[in-house]
Design a protein that fits this description.
Layout lengths: L1 H8 L6 E3 L2 H5 L11 H11 L2 E5 L5 E5 L3
Parallel strand pairs: 1-3
Antiparallel strand pairs: 2-3
Length: about 70
């Protein structure tokens, strides 16, 4: 996930933050449309056990989803 977030961050002005090391270590793969980063971020909870929270300042926090 950390590599994917680094790539997404290149195309987004507001920060994308991995809130915990477990989220950073998750593996995802696939081909993604970098012109639609926010849609990809919203899709992440379907691809991995994470939650995505959009902050008022534009930041996006990705953390491990707790049961």
């Amino acid at each position: 996930m950390s590599e994917a977030v680094a790539q997404m961050q290149r195309y987004r002005s507001a920060p994308i933050v991995l809130a915990d090391r477990h989220a950073a270590q998750l593996r995802i793969s696939g081909q993604f449309d970098l012109d639609r980063i926010d849609q990809l971020l919203d899709l992440l909870p379907r691809l991995a056990p994470v939650q995505v929270r959009h902050e008022d300042d534009g930041r996006v926090l990705i953390s491990t989803r707790h049961r």
